[in-house]
Model the fold of this input.
Amino acid sequence: ESISWADSVDDALAEAQNGDSVIRTGFSTIDTFIKLRAGNLFIIAARASMGKTSLALNIAVDAAKRCKATLFFSFEMTINELAGRILQSESGIQLSHQNSEDERDALQNAAKYLKDESWPLYFCERGARDLLFIRQKIWLMVQKHSVKLVIIDFVQMMYLGNRQQNRNLEL
Done:
């Protein structure tokens, strides 16, 4: 179907005025350049240990704080490890068996706050790597919880079902 230029401009204006269609990342600089919208695909790429998971997790938490239901697939970390990162981020304290009593109290308070908030943030960990399962899980979570944002951490670990000679072509 063809759409006229005038209709396209009208649609762009209507979308720009509808702030609900954009999911904010929590990083104003990123939000200036990138607009997360339904149906869009964004890939965060960098060398190992550059903070890709931390960035993705912070975006997920910020979206959930803004009541945008978020589904986070992690093929690299367990849900407990992700929860620990969120707890560290919210409390500002590194998790350690050597934390002082004050730090332990602050971590307990942050944990209580996180549990009380009950943000619409859902995790699916390691075992679910095949594309069919992921699609079904997303569909189910959209139906059940009106998920608006899906993040897949470590997409290279997904099994797509059709091995190519070149992994880049498969992805």
Summary: Helices lie at 5-17, 28-33, 52-65, 79-91, 101-117, 131-145, 167-170. The first helix runs from residue 5 to 17. DSSP finds seven helices and five strands in the chain. The mean pLDDT is 82.
